[in-house]
């Protein structure tokens, strides 16, 4: 088992799986990317990391600064932003609708 030093290095490094039915039907190799293997469990981890890195590169945020990421979300984007922001010492405020699932509320609170 490998040990990775940062969340950011885990994002996107998910496995590919051959999708047999579509591959047979098309005569091509069709692969699916297992995005659920990202640290936040979603393809939105990529988006969150990209947005945080873009804000750091543009100077809108500074690593470890008192800046705060605020996101109104249905869940997955906010989780990705909170995880990515945490890698750079940034605080996050994620606003979820009261109708959101308890699982997503717990996951967001722990990010």
Automatic annotation (TrEMBL):
Residues 10-107 form the Tryptophan synthase beta chain-like PALP domain. Its cofactor is pyridoxal 5'-phosphate. It comes from the Eukaryota. Gene3D superfamilies: 3.40.50.1100. Pfam families: PALP. PROSITE patterns: CYS_SYNTHASE (PS00901). One of its GO terms (biological process) is cysteine biosynthetic process from serine. This is Tryptophan synthase beta chain-like PALP domain-containing protein.
């Amino acid at each position: 088992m490998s040990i990775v030093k940062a969340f950011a290095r885990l994002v996107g490094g998910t496995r590919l799986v051959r999708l047999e039915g579509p591959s047979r039907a098309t005569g091509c190799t069709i692969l699916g990317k297992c995005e659920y293997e990202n640290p936040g469990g979603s393809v939105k981890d990529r988006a969150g990391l990209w947005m945080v890195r873009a804000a750091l590169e543009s100077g809108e945020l500074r690593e470890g600064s008192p800046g705060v990421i605020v996101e109104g979300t249905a869940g997955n984007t906010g989780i990705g932003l909170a995880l990515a922001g945490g890698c750079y010492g940034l605080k996050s405020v994620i606003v979820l609708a009261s109708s959101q699932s308890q699982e997503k509320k717990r996951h967001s609170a722990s990010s």
